[in-house]
């Protein structure tokens, strides 16, 4: 187009749509921006105890935390040595306690080692007892199947990859 000529109508519509889009985007950003005030009604409990220790070679650690609202947690851990080609793991044990909203004291102790995570608490659910005794012939069949599996473990089918 030559200088001094007007903009074609289809360009004016695109400009208007773009301007509206930019304006809507800026309004959305402004609405989502933090408003600059703090909720002073929230009080955070003070930390009464914060003890942390780690061995110089980082092979073990302990920590203990207690807060003003009654939450306590303590834990100790150590690195387990590896055996042969297997890498060692970490053994941990500790306790956690706090007061529930209904006033009860929740306590949990745990151990985490090569046998997995083992929590203990009176608040943890307990599986119901098995409703009846397992008949001996069923136990014998299970034992026989285990022995057969040990003697000749099943191999994947050779037809597995075939259509």
Write up this protein.
The protein is an alpha+beta fold and 163 residues long. The protein is built from two helices and six strands. Helix content is 25%, strand content 29%. The protein is extended and about 90 Å long.
Can you give keywords for this protein?
2 helices, alpha+beta, six-stranded antiparallel β-sheet, 25% helix, extended, single chain, 163 residues
Give the structure's gist in a few sentences:
The protein has 163 residues and is α+β, with helices and mostly antiparallel strands. The protein is built from 2 helices and 6 strands; from the N terminus they run H-E-E-E-E-E-E-H.
The overall pLDDT average reads 83
Alpha plus pi helix count: 2
Shape: extended
Largest β sheet strand count, sense and barrel closure: 6 strands, antiparallel
Strand order of the largest sheet: 1-2-3-4-5-6
User: Which secondary-structure class do the elements indicate?
Assistant: alpha+beta
Low-confidence stretches: none
Task: Note the beta-strand portion.
Answer: 25-35%
What is the radius of gyration computed over CA atoms, rounded to a whole number of angstroms?
33 Å
Number of strands: 6
């Amino acid at each position: 187009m030559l200088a001094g000529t007007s903009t074609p109508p289809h360009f004016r519509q695109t400009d208007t749509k773009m301007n509206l889009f930019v304006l809507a985007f800026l309004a959305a950003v402004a609405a989502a921006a933090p408003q600059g005030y703090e909720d002073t009604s929230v009080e955070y409990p003070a930390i009464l105890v914060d003890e942390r220790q780690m061995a110089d070679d980082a092979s073990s650690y302990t920590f203990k935390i207690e807060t003003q609202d009654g939450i306590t947690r303590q834990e100790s851990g150590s690195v387990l040595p590896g055996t042969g080609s297997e890498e060692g793991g970490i053994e941990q044990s500790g306790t956690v306690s706090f007061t529930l909203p209904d006033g009860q004291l929740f306590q949990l102790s745990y151990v985490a080692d090569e046998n997995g995570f083992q929590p203990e608490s009176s608040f943890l659910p307990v599986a119901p007892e098995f409703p009846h005794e397992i008949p001996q012939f069923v136990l014998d069949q299970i034992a026989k199947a285990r022995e057969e599996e040990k003697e000749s473990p099943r191999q994947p089918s050779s037809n597995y990859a075939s259509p």
